Amino acid sequence: MSDFPACPECKSTFTYHDGTLLVCPECGHEWSENEPAETDTKPEFRDANGSPLNDGDTVTVIKDLKIKGSSSVVKVGTKVKNIRLVDGDHDIDCKIDGIGAMKLKSEFVKKV
């Protein structure tokens, strides 16, 4: 077995040297041997004002948001309670009274 470190992407132990880089044959990830190992950190979500958001926070919508596939609109000032943060383009999962389950972008809300 080789003395090379495991792949930071897929944790494969079949890594090898290719010039100055280490390469994983399973996922194709390349990295420098001197590169510090990345720790699994959770992405940080921030509202429109730059305040950090957490699961369970209450936020307010700062812009009228059209609902795709509907003629409804989420109005400015709508309070959204108990948000859940998720990875992806729309990073807030929530339930809005009178509308139902929705996904919002954190750039269109501010923390209460």
UniProtKB/TrEMBL annotation:
The segment(s) forming the Protein YjdM N-terminal domain are 4-32
Question: What highest taxon heads this organism's lineage?
Answer: Bacteria
Starting at the broadest rank, the lineage of the source organism is: Bacteria, Pseudomonadati, Pseudomonadota, Gammaproteobacteria, Alteromonadales
Q: Spell out the family assignment given in the record's similarity comment.
A: Belongs to the YjdM family.
InterPro entries on file? YjdM, YjdM_C, YjdM_N
Regions annotated as coiled coil? none
This protein is called what? Alkylphosphonate utilization operon protein PhnA
Annotated segments matching region Disordered: 32-53
What Pfam families would the database entry show? YjdM, Zn_Ribbon_YjdM
Q: Which organism is it from?
A: Idiomarina aquatica
Every Protein YjdM C-terminal domain range: 46-112
